[in-house]
Structures
1.
Amino acid sequence: EHWELNQHFDYRILLKLKEDLEKIKAKKGTALNCGKGVLEELKPLATLEDEGLTLKEIVERVEKDLLEFADDETVAINVASTEPTPEFDPEYHATLEGFERAIEEDRRDKVTASMLYAYVSLKNGIPFANFTPSVSSSIPALKELAERVGVPHAGNDGKTGETLVKTTLAPMFAYRNLKVLGWMGYNILGDLDGKVLAHEQNKRSKIVSKDKVVGKILGYYPYTITEINYFPSLQDNKTAFDFIHFQGFLGTKMKFYFIWDAIDAIVAAPLVLDIARFLLLAKKKGQKGVVKELAFFFKSPMDTDEYNTHRQFEILKKWFEALVSS
Amino acid sequence: EHWELNQHFDYRILLKLKEDLEKIKAKKGTALNCGKGVLEELKPLATLEDEGLTLKEIVERVEKDLLEFADDETVAINVASTEPTPEFDPEYHATLEGFERAIEEDRRDKVTASMLYAYVSLKNGIPFANFTPSVSSSIPALKELAERVGVPHAGNDGKTGETLVKTTLAPMFAYRNLKVLGWMGYNILGDLDGKVLAHEQNKRSKIVSKDKVVGKILGYYPYTITEINYFPSLQDNKTAFDFIHFQGFLGTKMKFYFIWDAIDAIVAAPLVLDIARFLLLAKKKGQKGVVKELAFFFKSPMDTDEYNTHRQFEILKKWFEALVSS
Amino acid sequence: EHWELNQHFDYRILLKLKEDLEKIKAKKGTALNCGKGVLEELKPLATLEDEGLTLKEIVERVEKDLLEFADDETVAINVASTEPTPEFDPEYHATLEGFERAIEEDRRDKVTASMLYAYVSLKNGIPFANFTPSVSSSIPALKELAERVGVPHAGNDGKTGETLVKTTLAPMFAYRNLKVLGWMGYNILGDLDGKVLAHEQNKRSKIVSKDKVVGKILGYYPYTITEINYFPSLQDNKTAFDFIHFQGFLGTKMKFYFIWDAIDAIVAAPLVLDIARFLLLAKKKGQKGVVKELAFFFKSPMDTDEYNTHRQFEILKKWFEALVSS
Amino acid sequence: EHWELNQHFDYRILLKLKEDLEKIKAKKGTALNCGKGVLEELKPLATLEDEGLTLKEIVERVEKDLLEFADDETVAINVASTEPTPEFDPEYHATLEGFERAIEEDRRDKVTASMLYAYVSLKNGIPFANFTPSVSSSIPALKELAERVGVPHAGNDGKTGETLVKTTLAPMFAYRNLKVLGWMGYNILGDLDGKVLAHEQNKRSKIVSKDKVVGKILGYYPYTITEINYFPSLQDNKTAFDFIHFQGFLGTKMKFYFIWDAIDAIVAAPLVLDIARFLLLAKKKGQKGVVKELAFFFKSPMDTDEYNTHRQFEILKKWFEALVSS
């Protein structure tokens, strides 16, 4: 029992939900190209590809399972562990036609699980969000699909903890013309995510996503260190240590430190709910393609260069107000 | 030599400025109602009131000294130590007529040094800014004066360190609906300011100024602790320790800590220069009265309830762009 | 239910102990001269003195209640809230005769609850420890009593958190001849203890106890700040922020920060158990009077100037080994 | 000029020493098997091996240079950058005969610069200390040499910063039976040492030296993370961030954080001086071989399992007092 280990919320909440939780049945899915991190840390992991299915058959199974469950209010959100980033292949990733050909030709080396789930959702008019740094719906092929079908999607990588603080604080240094000389961010976490990220291949995608935000906001790229390490006794607790070295008037160097001591799942869960609600609203209002106004929720927002949390919030508010009154 | 103790910037910068610095001659001024902190820590302190001058004579002397020096480009900025907050007296503080009557009647119990300097500046068309939590130009009487003379002014209390970080971070908790349960801010500093603030009377004004910003931004007033203590070995170094206790999804409590390790004078100096430039521009463009768009620079901005650093920056930018192109 | 608020240990432990816990019945006691902090924060507080009893009658009632309960293995430990420190009065505090005269004469202004409990325990041959900064058994009168009756006692003020770290770290600076320029310690806590200590009178005793240890270890008294503040949302959580400014070779200043984020009751409870065991052993081995070798457990150990945690541990070990093999 | 960049002490100290410093002339030496870190970061680096000298010729040159300079009071201390750890080869490292055969046979693959300097010093009766994690005089061959010649030596790896704190604090958790669940130590530094340690090969030796101390003191090996990263803007400043997760009564988990913000050279220099003085005294008093009582100064002390800073200090004091009075 996962709760036993953490007890980060009241067990009586769990008791009340027991019946409902027990009714949820997970179906067998795919973990195609999810990297060593996922395959080793989650085993035994029974997947559709282990059954010997072709890509096409996998898509059909996932589609069948999804449609049995889905209704008009359904939104799909990828909260699986981080996949390694596959190399972009114009032949199969650039166009919807190419992507569907990859499925036809059973090119498993070109397709990851997060792409498949995005594909099945969007194809069936189900709004989709990618809460992870995996590639998923961000390839041109799937953006094309969303436009064609007329369904909204958003991503990538939920901005829950250290990066949220980074993108809130970094603007301050820019506004005040305090030059950031270096920014160090050390993250330790004890959950399954931490275990998966301990694998170099999977970690890489995450670090790239966390690392670039400071430079995007400042307009120049200071020296940065971004580390993620597994720390088992923390369990669902995630702690980040950041150190910012900055330079002010007359070249004087000064220091800023922060410690973020939070529970990743607890800060992530309400974002997932909010994203679902916003995407559903967008769908109802007829929006399609990337909803870049949801950048507020993501570390690597699609189709925008706005990383400043404050501006993202203003954009979200304006979008929401316009949408509601439309 | 003050630099000897701190050495927080290169001594060669000082050598280059030596000649210019030596030309600056300070005149004897007033420290009326500046509180025990100022009187005890800065002694021997020779003031105009010690010479037995009346309020009217003090005003005349300060005016004479100022006009000898000032030209069209002069801006006056109050960077003196924090005064205790006097009780508001409608008779003498509410109208310009009342304030001038206080001077005529030599009501020294009603007037503080920071009011006098603001009065003399504004009366002579010199833009004025109050970089301290002292009352200064924020009483209705002096606001009226600024409007009448047609000169811009701004204040109060330069937002240089911990409060800058507070007003940058607090919005994040609001945006994400993370409830702040408590916010503790401990400040230690070793300069003269620290010595003066060690006096209860003077400290009070400062704490009020630092303390309210979090509630203003969040829309509710969490439990707060704000302490300022003198720590001699730090000299010009100012360090703030903040702890934020917050509550997220399912009532889970989480923690955030930060340490700001900076040099107060170094972060303040460029703000003083910027405020001077902006006020001069405002004057040239014909603005008068409180320039509330300069809220970005102040802990307790006059005539606005906008404490969010990010919004303040947007407001400043818009104001500046409109002004320049006007 | 206190546990509800904190949940800092597994509720199933509590379930197992439920029956035993319910059997424990507290008797009405005394809160004589416990200060405003105790009287206001714990009310409604029914005490023996409220019943109009004289000192002598209070002593008799406490004694009766204690003897009903006690056996040969009983040890009494004061874990009540901190009392204000009464002024030492040679007439009533210096000798056992004087102290007993105070009781006879019903001099309630001279006697505190912690003295009364110590008196009753020691008089009846029950080893006593004072886990608080209250005066208790440390007055000469009660030390005399312990010697006469032949019973061991120990105190004062359990060294549980920040002071434990202080007395562990401070020796390092001494060994390496790094001069401590200043040591700041800020404590925040949310339990009843915090509430009581928010009262100036009660806080004073605690701060004196925490503050002097650094100087005792270093051999000189650096600038120190010791603050304790109530922070309700922390509940049983106690957090300390320490900053140490130190100077090394060639006068270079350097910095050390630590954050102690612990649960006071959880770090205190095993000490209380250990002290009880050690005192019982001491009694069985015929020791009487202050057991200064238990200094390891206390912030203000009686009859010793050894504040270095490491030396205290070595002394405890030697004492224990000698005692066991005696 | 190195001082220009750091200015961590008063430039007037430097002016006073200018003449003396200019008289010191460094001779060309060896960097044999010092690893990529040293070779790449210090280039252009002119070494004796670049001149095409054999091992034997290198030894002769170093010996000649040393003897020209040395007198009766000379002590040699290795403060060079960390070498990668060579594999132990019994044939050449286990006995003095083997080591000298390696020199004869010009087996450059078996010998590192730090061994050569130790060899030359000890052979000539010059006390030697290894202030680095390099192997140096710790191989049996050189220990044998020291015993034979009758000269004292000590090592390894100066305990200057984070490890000093670790070995001061870890005993506290042991004394109080608080179980350390995990200990994370992140080090960032901006000097040449940091640059060299950014090279994986060189870093490895250092991490092993830093990492094991906690387990040695606790008696069990908790989960540890030890990272060292280069952070250029810090220059000579070295900052360590440590997080200790520990478990107390009833299984409750608690947290401790510390930040060490110091100047490595400044905390190291006086240790180097003290080691030199102690070794000289040891020599004068006729001690030979490893002086394990100097463990206080080292991260990986030779021939002892005592890592507790406090015990090491007691041992040093006793040794010194006995030696002086012998």
2.
Amino acid sequence: MRILLIGAGGVGDAVARIAARRSFFESLVVSDYDLARAERTVAAVRERHPDDERFRADRVDASSAEAVAEAVRRHGATHVLNAVDPRFVMPIFDGARQGGADYLDMAMSLSRPHPERPFTETGVKLGDEQLAQHDAYVAEGRLALVGIGVEPGLSDVFARYAVDHLFSHVTELGVRDGANLAVAGYDFAPGFSIWTTIEECLNPPVVYERDRGWYTLEPFSEPEVFDFPGGIGPVECVHVEHEEVLLMPRWLDADKVTFKYGLGNEFIEVLKALHKVGLDKTEPVSVKGVKVSPRDVVAACLPDPATLGDAMSGKTCAGLLVTGTGKDGQPRRVYLSHVVDNADSMRIDGAQCVVWQTALNPVVALELLASGVWKGTGVLGPEAFDAVPFLDLLASPDGYHSPWELNELEPEPSAP
Amino acid sequence: MRILLIGAGGVGDAVARIAARRSFFESLVVSDYDLARAERTVAAVRERHPDDERFRADRVDASSAEAVAEAVRRHGATHVLNAVDPRFVMPIFDGARQGGADYLDMAMSLSRPHPERPFTETGVKLGDEQLAQHDAYVAEGRLALVGIGVEPGLSDVFARYAVDHLFSHVTELGVRDGANLAVAGYDFAPGFSIWTTIEECLNPPVVYERDRGWYTLEPFSEPEVFDFPGGIGPVECVHVEHEEVLLMPRWLDADKVTFKYGLGNEFIEVLKALHKVGLDKTEPVSVKGVKVSPRDVVAACLPDPATLGDAMSGKTCAGLLVTGTGKDGQPRRVYLSHVVDNADSMRIDGAQCVVWQTALNPVVALELLASGVWKGTGVLGPEAFDAVPFLDLLASPDGYHSPWELNELEPEPSAP
């Protein structure tokens, strides 16, 4: 396996650091629009693994499918891992195929709201542009494994595991994500790309119900407090547009699929304010003679999330709340989760926990693809593959040594 | 009187429209960094007053005292009226004096927080740089009438009136400003310069007490709901840094002076969010190869307040809550106020009510200076002059026909 990693931001950098601990691939090219950033990542890997000759840096323009295809050919890449923000999904997706490589990403092609009824009906859905090419991929014998970060990604693996091994009937697959992170020296310092966070939080959130199909709500709808494990505790969660809601129902049987993000009230107020002022917009505005995208200015005002690891403390939790009927016919409710302490991810790979948790899963998936344990053709989500080998490799001390948990919760009281 | 108006934004435009109804001056040059904007204002005046030959447009760089002095000499101006944002107070103030003209403004030189204790002690206060030149102005026989908009401005005139005619002892002079404006088609559209609003709302608010002098608080401190007249009703008000608190105690006897702004909870949340993200900053940040000031980007994302008049509805109220002992020795509490309905300011002068209400007062003051009813030398606030002729000219049908109100309120219960 020869990997072309595109993007050396927080997640891309962590991908390289994690992969360096494993032997399943021959080479990994770290590429970025900014070559210096790619070189910094390769230098960081070399510092920790001085004898590892598998890593090189290159410059790639992710906005051009031709440039991506050319980079695939230049490096003889067998797999492209997309680790840039979702604006660039389609050129990288198309470029990988043109160049002749399989493809993985952690966020899918962007949605566009319904032109008249944005808060009740879906328009173009997350991933629609990619999933439309499924048959062509099958015909070519090529694989695109889409949404294989932590969420989407590990959350989808959990869903497949719950459906296969824990439940006879699933009422709801509900992703619930929360954290108790603090960054010393900053009042406000998001741990993940603000560009992506704005995109997912301000788009109309999407919900799936078996009888209704996909539909949308107002942003920040239906707040609920979820009690996260690992000492994180209760966090206010709201509906957010996320890939899992689009992926899970395509392969798994469930009455309802939701995604709720534990943004916390402060972060919600900031996002609402940015939206009110129009600072979430991506179209450039003229400011005293220069043109800038307001959302890029927001990102420029905040610290780079990839640089916050040393100042950060606390834990982040990704997980799936599954409600339904157990294999024994009794009501069951479980929370499958993966909790990362920032102190651990910094110690193991020198990466902050939010980007590290995202980066871990595509590396696990690449290893399963390299060994042939996972195989498939088409445009597939993580729930299209057997969950058990993934969860085993993730947790095993000989694998990635990053345990996941199953918390048995009180079943919900029956509806009256 | 030959007036050089600097700034053809919302307030400057309204100044020209209001002044065109009056005959006390020989000429008024509307100047701006952007000549087209100045020409637009002159054209708007000509449209309403086709025979009025007193208005001309010119280009002036308000950031250069030399350029301002040169414009004063070029036009033989006797008075400079500064109607640009407060970043440019000092070059215009200095340029007027160098050119040989008297000076008026509606906002004073900027403050700088105390370097160690910003939320308890003042650093450089609003207007300090201007007031430091008082003796030099007196020696030259020159006048700078500072803070003669609506707030500061009319609020200071109200304070002088209350001290002279309504109270024997003043416990508190408390400016209270609120509105019930809505702008059709916009979720969020501030009626006044967002640059200035951010500046005044995010700086540490200043309070004056007789025994303590000036001191500062945290932004948005001590929220209180004030019931505004004219159908506006209750609005949440918080402490804001404002010139009145610096001006009133220099000429008037009061135990305490405060300024509270009826921002409303939504606007407060937006300002807090902008501050958290760092979008209130004025120092340029690098955004994909270009440098921009984040606060300028915020302004560029919002509609130009001067253009909102047609879509705006509601009223704005500027006023002063005075607490103390009446001339009869009894506890007294009055609210002196000036309420403007946007429909009226649009009908009379084609200007939206917030900028119109600000612009009205320097024109009244210029007329009193032209007639010699007001005269003085030095750097003086509005409370240094007799309030009665100002309030009469403001309200009189032969004057500006814009009435003010005195509301007698229940005196506060005595302290236990």
3.
Amino acid sequence: MAGTVRGRAPARGRYPGFVTFPVIGMVGGGQLARMTHEAGIPLGIRFRLLSDTPQDSAAQVAGDVVVGDYRDLETLRAFAHGCDVITFDHEHVPTEHLRALEADGIPVRPGPEALVHAQDKGVMRARLTEIGAPCPRHRIVADPADVAAFAAELAAEDGGEGFPLVLKTVRGGYDGKGVWIVRSAEEAAEPFRAGVPVLAEEKVDFVRELAANVVRSPHGQAVAYPVVESQQVDGVCDTVIAPAPGLDEELALGASELALRIAAELGVVGHLAVELFEVRAADGTPRVLVNELAMRPHNSGHWTQDGAVTSQFANHVRAVLDLPLGDPRPRARWTVMGNVLGGDYPDMYTAYLHCMARDPQLKIHMYGKDVKPGRKVGHVNTYGDDLDDVLARARHAAGYLRGTIQE
Amino acid sequence: MAGTVRGRAPARGRYPGFVTFPVIGMVGGGQLARMTHEAGIPLGIRFRLLSDTPQDSAAQVAGDVVVGDYRDLETLRAFAHGCDVITFDHEHVPTEHLRALEADGIPVRPGPEALVHAQDKGVMRARLTEIGAPCPRHRIVADPADVAAFAAELAAEDGGEGFPLVLKTVRGGYDGKGVWIVRSAEEAAEPFRAGVPVLAEEKVDFVRELAANVVRSPHGQAVAYPVVESQQVDGVCDTVIAPAPGLDEELALGASELALRIAAELGVVGHLAVELFEVRAADGTPRVLVNELAMRPHNSGHWTQDGAVTSQFANHVRAVLDLPLGDPRPRARWTVMGNVLGGDYPDMYTAYLHCMARDPQLKIHMYGKDVKPGRKVGHVNTYGDDLDDVLARARHAAGYLRGTIQE
């Protein structure tokens, strides 16, 4: 163990005999934790979970579960005692608590100095701009008058009206929540009501959305997955295609390099998803702008479970333990991930049988969550040589499970 | 659920909300249970474990663990209450207990009438002979004099001496335990000391060992994995190559058909491993003889975790729940599994780092077991187009982890 989770002896006292394999403490019991546990089992890694309830997605399938509130420092401390490293299913743990754990001598990965860029969109934009990463034009705005001023500035640069603009609370948003598209200063009152600072961004006229996923370890080893296309419906990820079809080779390379550079500059440890807009300049030259960062396994990387030599989850585990990283290369020409959202009918099991019978190659990943309309309850992966076929199979299965496709 | 685990409503009362996914009760906490749980997580299946101790391989990673003795019927009954189906990590549960569970209305898969063929080598040989499956010549023997008589009979048929012979206790043996090779009647006293019936078999002069793995569901759907070559060292599986290199196509097809027929005739539900000897007739014609049967996921199928579209563990889960089976086809030209046995040095973690760094494509599966010399503590899978390379990588990793290779 010496030199792997640095500065700490492994928590071997908790297990009998000579086992020296480390314990990962995972904060948050959602599906990302569930799938990280799944990926850690073959690695022989011990997994300890801090979960809101015993019914959470990951808590159903893990052995060492602490039920408690991650917002409470003493709960976090008690949980972290006996763990070799702490990592996360979500970005909501308060920065000061992470600093306190570090002060206690517990490695936190990604660490609070990196994680703040995934927690606070204002900090993220400022830092990305500082390191020269291409971003949409943006400004922290205090009120609707500020929004109008920012719109006027964009209008002066581009011609046109400046609106519509995108407003985001700098903290707390996900899956389209905490995001507003406003067409005038009058429409801009709502985002300010939460009392959280608001970031205004130009509404990017993008060709499509991409994601560049990389994994970085504490000693600086890093791997890049192929850049993927991510298709959103109503602000929620619907389909991911790996690799992004028809993507300009130089642009793909540039996007991966950008993600690796962001990971290094921000000191990220573990999986980093860089969500990108692909845009075309007036002369037709393609380029990318950074939309969002996520410092954990990410929906745009779920395809790697069945489509890559090493999944994002396995590489996240390896990274936070400072183990050598696994090969991120694809195993198939095309892999497609389709998110399974809850539909109106709560029992998915009958639909599930039908999908298995229809497509014996289908890879299903269910999260053990109650079905609620629009809720992410699972995903499917398909792979093969023919993109049309691979896409059609994933879309059929996701639609059939949701109940929007009947045959 | 209706119609899948037949005759029982799903145990949904144990879980909140509308979740109707079934609960598998797994008897035995070894690595097969561990890897079955791992495979069940993406399927959304609830997993309940009956384990000898809380430290058993599977008990470390599962959420719903009952610690108790499977030989005690009341323990089994209490465990099975709330499970939709019972399946096994090993074949040691007494037949009368399985019948009692069935009488209670709990589906047991494989059922006791099938499982007895994997529990009792005498019953297995009698039944296989009855259905015309090719077996080594064999006889139940009562004492060394019986052994001598059987040897004399073989000598009369073949010329030669009849010896050496293989003696096996009909119950309780595994990994070379409960098996003796004797060169004379005088050497044949030991096997009779346990008071268990003894089976004598001719010592087959085989070319190599093969395994034909199939999975069968209650409604009779079945899939066959490619026939593999299994290399043993000191009676313990060392390396598995999928598919078996240079295997005669007709023989491979015949071996798969034989395994499917045995599964159907014996009413197997779940994974069935048919261990085979490949032999050559005097005229050079290759054929197979059945060596052993195992009715559960099997060491000769571990390669499927990384080498097949659907792993043996996922298909075992699907079969015992009567879900449609997944595609058993290989994903790579060659996949090699190398067993990791414990060596003299109890800490494997440092070696583990080295193996990961040396081969980023290596797939490691650790069981969370204490390292003891000769004990199976994990396995590695490698895959690719070049068999020599794939074999060398698996052998290096397995040897390095054990400590028999130093660089």
